[in-house]
Design a protein that fits this description.
mainly alpha, 2 helices
Amino acid sequence: NLADNQFNGSLPASLTRNSIINL
């Protein structure tokens, strides 16, 4: 999940929020 968060750093906030929920 940490790696996903780093990857999502370049994506829109809405997608990063989804990744955080998936933690």
